[in-house]
Design goal:
four-stranded antiparallel β-sheet; mainly beta; 179 residues; five-stranded antiparallel β-sheet; single chain; globular
């Protein structure tokens, strides 16, 4: 697609459908000063990436949704996911998740998600949709980090405990969005 934007302003890039995990764009789409060609950058969904979300582009001073998925070729029965973020930049609002998933804000900048289910959670399942408010800050991007602990993976009929860090994608801010 081609977008026109006033010099010095940004543009919201298109939403992409893919089997990979969207990491971001090859060049900045904020404060555009000349013609630029950008390409999407993806991660492959691999077994070691138990949980993931796509990078998103948001306007400051707005609320936005973030979809958290289960990745890899896994069957999960229980575990704890910790999602950490900068509370000076993002404010947690709410979450809708799978049955058997308890989500709480353990402290500012940290969400804890406990899950336990009789039906294993499998790859590419939507685990939760989280809502955040992007505060008015002079920031280009902020990181959201995910880690899993005491996660039980079902393999060959047995439960195996694993701990891991997962893909750390970003929330990109567009301060001056063109029409």
């Amino acid at each position: 697609e081609t977008f026109s934007v006033e010099e010095g302003k940004g543009v919201f890039p298109p939403i992409l459908e893919t089997n990979g995990v969207f990491r971001g764009w090859s060049a900045g789409v904020n404060a555009v000063k000349a013609d630029v060609e950008v390409h999407p950058i993806f991660y492959d969904i691999k077994e070691e990436n138990l949980f993931y979300f796509d990078s998103v582009y948001v306007k400051e001073d707005t609320e936005f949704a973030l979809d958290l998925f289960v990745g890899g070729k896994v069957n999960l029965s229980s575990g704890t996911i910790t999602l950490s973020y900068d509370p000076d930049v993002l404010e947690y609002k709410s979450a809708d998740g799978l049955e058997g998933l308890e989500i709480s804000e353990s402290k500012a900048g940290e969400l804890t998600m406990q899950f336990s289910t009789d039906t294993p959670i499998k790859e590419k399942m939507l685990l939760s949709q989280l809502s955040f408010y992007a505060k008015k800050k002079d920031a280009y991007a902020t990181q959201i980090n995910l880690s899993a602990s005491n996660t039980m993976i079902i393999s060959n009929g047995k439960e195996i405990s694993t701990n891991c860090a997962t893909i750390n994608n970003k929330i990109y801010f567009l301060q001056e969005v063109g029409e």
